[in-house]
Predict the structure.
Amino acid sequence: MSIVLYWHPMSSASPIASALAELDVAHERVLIDLKAGEQRRPEFLALNPNGAVPTLTVDGAPMFEALAIHLWLGERYGVERGLWPAADTPERLQAMSWCAWSYVTYGAAVWSLSTALHPRDGEQRDEQQAKRALAQLDRLLAVLDGHLAKQAWIVGASYSLADLVVGSVLGYTAFLGAPIASHRHVQAWLDKVQARPAMRLEQG
């Protein structure tokens, strides 16, 4: 199977690069220079009409959206490597739920915070929106903190790709000011996730 990752360092493609490394999946990487606008070239848009990274091709067939790629990698490679729960298990249901939670539920609050702090097209920062978004992130982090108070990792006693997925999203939000440090179980868990060697492979 031929796998190609189209990516850019320090972007939303970075967690996919980390997942491929964690799973030890042989692949080729193609650097897309976002500053030069390579993501808008016709040949790249043919793979990803959104003009964004990450983009993955599997035997030439394109796939986009980071969460979809993560879930496919977990199903295709993670089960046999002990890094993704088997199908039709309670752990698989939890893994999918928390991964979607991080990108969709938590992600919506992150987007609200980001747009408030970094407005475009000459708009002003919206401090009230930022305050509301931070409060929502705090509430969501409390939910995750309660979950991690009961178990060491997202789906139980062992690290899995679900920890990488959720940890990647939360790690990014720390730079935006999300109150992660206020939730001790989340902070301790995130420290463990970020300490894994695969999370540091940014340059490959």
Remarks:
- Residues 90-200 form a domain with the Glutathione S-transferase Yfyf (Class Pi); Chain A, domain 2 fold (CATH 1.20.1050.10).
- Residues 137 and 172 are 13 Å apart (CA to CA).
- The chain has a mean pLDDT of 95.
